[in-house]
Amino acid sequence: MASHVKSIQQRLGDLPALVMTDAVSIRYASGFHIDDGAAVIAHDKAWVVTDSRYVEAATAAITDMEVLCTGTGRGVNTILGEIFAQNGFDRAGAMPDRLSHAQWEWLEKAVGVPLVPETSILSALRAGKDQEEVDSIVAAQRIAEKAFDDLLGIIRPGMTEKEITAELVYRMYKFGGEGNSFDPIVVTGAKSSMPHGVPGDVVVRSGDFITMDFGTLYNGYCSDMTRTVAVGSVTEEMRRVYDTVLAAQLAGIEAADRPGATGKEIDGAARKVIADAGYGEYFGHSFGHSLGLEIHENPGAHARNDQPFPEGAVISAEPGIYLPGRFGVRIEDMLWLHGGRAENLTKAPKQLIIL
Questions:
Q1: Which of 72, 140, 155, 328 has the smallest number of CB atoms closer than 10 Å to its CB?
Q2: Within a domain: residue 350?
Q3: What CATH number corresponds to the domain at position 166?
Q4: Mean of pLDDT values over 264-285
Q5: Is the separation of the CB atoms in 274 and 321 below 8 Å?
């Protein structure tokens, strides 16, 4: 993946440098994943600090940052101190939302200058995805869709939620995924009324809904989709709830498909459909969230967000109806908001599938 160093440098303003130690921020900046290290970005220079496990691959992959390696008696804190002393930085920005209090104190001691809370630079940049980021998200989504399509051929009554989850995860790896975007949600029967239910030993029965919420990673970027399928048959009410959720999702997508759409407007359009159908109290979460290197990013498509989405935002579209102790339905796609339009990145069919 390409780095975002130059974009960060352009936003530094009068801040001499930005220092980061969390893996996600370092990956966004450098384009390379490092579990344990640090990065410093100044106006005309940038550094990545890593160790012997990563240094060879990092040196080959990172082109616009100097790669420095720790060694015996020369840890990350020592190298950070050297960077700041040699370049005369008198302060640095750091992200308090990415550091515990103890980590903040350690980092400030390591660099030897005051740290200034700075959250806007990376959050603003990461909110809008460039073409390469979107390409990675789409690649992850195609892998997840292929796994889902393959999985439908083996689901049958008598399988447990755990067994279906294992088959799904295996297929996402088999078809090229790098890992799970999050712990998959696979719930059936009465447990499908739990939006974040945990797969267990519940057995699939004929007449049940199965809700599957899952995603995989590609180049470190997440995909996210949910499909609810039925086994054997559905009742009239189950079909009515499914059709209502689908209509709500399509209404939210339509509301997003214009310049300047806000999270409040998108969420409200979907919520109105569900409320008008008499199920308003059974849709408790928001319409969607942004995603990228992390499965939950900002901004969100919810009633509290009255600001237009930034150009290039990728958001989930996932309304649901959950009838406690009975069943639930959720349908989720991903939207890329760019050029005043909402492009649906998800290609999996959404009509009710009865296995």
A1: 72
A2: no
A3: 3.90.230.10
A4: 98
A5: yes
Burial class (CB in 10 A: 0-12, 13-18, 19+), 326: middle
Residue range of the domain that includes 111: 5-126
> In angstroms, rounded to a whole number, what is the distance separating the alpha carbons of residues 208 and 217?
30
8 Å CB contact between 161 and 202: yes
Structural domains counted in the chain: 2
Whole-angstrom distance, CA of residue 299 vs CA of residue 124: 10
- The tens digit of pLDDT for each residue in 226-238 reads 999 999 999 999 9
pLDDT beyond 80 at 1: no
Q: Are residues 82 and 226 in the same domain?
A: no
Helix runs in the chain, H state only: 5-9, 23-30, 55-61, 76-87, 101-111, 120-127, 131-152, 161-174, 236-256, 263-276
pTM of the model: 0.96
Tokens 């012997």 -> residue = 52
For residue 127, which of 310, 271, 285 has the smallest C-alpha distance?
Answer: 310
Does a structural domain hold residue 355?
no
Last residue of a domain, one of 76, 103, 126: 126
Query: Can you tell me the distance from the alpha carbon of 108 to that of 300, in angstroms, rounded to the nearest whole number?
Result: 32
Which of 105, 126, 147 delimits the end of a domain? 126
